[in-house]
Amino acid sequence: MSALNRKVFGPLPSYEQTVVVPTSEDAEQAWRYTTDEPAEGWANPEFNATAWKEGVGGFGTKGTPNSVVRTDWSTKEIWLRRSFTLESVEFHELNYRIHHDEDATIYLNGLEVDSLEGFTSGYEEFLASPKAGQALKKGENLVAIHCQQTAGGQYIDWGLFDVKVSPTDSPID
After folding, report:
1. Burial of 147: CB neighbours in 10 Å, binned 0-12, 13-18, 19+
2. Would you write out the chain's pLDDT as a tens digit for each of its 173 residues?
3. Which residues are CB-contacts of 34 (< 8 A; sequence separation ≥ 6)?
4. Which among 96, 95, 69 is positioned nearest to 156, based on CA atoms?
C-alpha cells in the first residue's frame, strides 16, 4: 500500500525549521512585564518600559499543564515586551511557537499582528499572519503580548521560527 501511495502522491516533503526568536522552553528568555494596565502605546517600540519588572519566560502558575514556569503570574492580565535583533527579514514561512492560557494578542513593532482566543494545553505552532512578516525589519524589533486569564491554570510564552518546505529528492518508483 505504501508503494502505491508513493506512486500516486509522491514522496513526502521535508521540513527545515530555523528558530528566529526562541521560547523559554529550553532556556530562560528575558522579558519586561507588568500586571498593571499600562499607558496607551505600550506595544510601540518607543514606549518607555524601564519601570516595568524584569522576568524570564514562561510566565504562569505552577501546575499549568506542559508549562515551564520561570516567573510567577497569577493576576487576571499580563503585558509583556521583548526586544530581538534580526540579521535578515527573508523568511520562507513564519510560525509562532506559543503556549497561551488564555487569550493572547501579539504585536510586532507596535502593529497588532494576531489575536489568539482560548488556550493551548501545551506549546503549539501556528502560522503567523502575513502582517507579522510585514511588521518585522532588519535590526532591532519588539514583540509585545497581552494575555488575559479567566479560570484554571495560566501561562504565556512565545517564540518565532521560520519553516522551509522542500520536496524530497527520492524518485517515485
Report:
1. buried
2. 667 666 777 766 787 999 999 999 999 999 999 999 999 999 999 999 999 999 999 999 999 999 999 999 999 999 999 999 999 999 999 999 999 999 999 999 999 999 999 999 999 999 999 999 999 999 999 999 999 998 888 999 999 999 998 876 555 44
3. 49, 52, 53, 78, 79
4. 69
87 Rama sector, left if φ>0, alpha if ψ -120 to 50, beta otherwise: alpha
- CA quadruple 137, 131, 128, 143: dihedral positive or negative? positive
Are 116 and 126 in contact, with CB atoms under 8 Å apart?
Answer: yes
Render the burial of 112-129: b for 16+ CB within 10 Å, e for the rest: ebbebeebbeebeeeebb
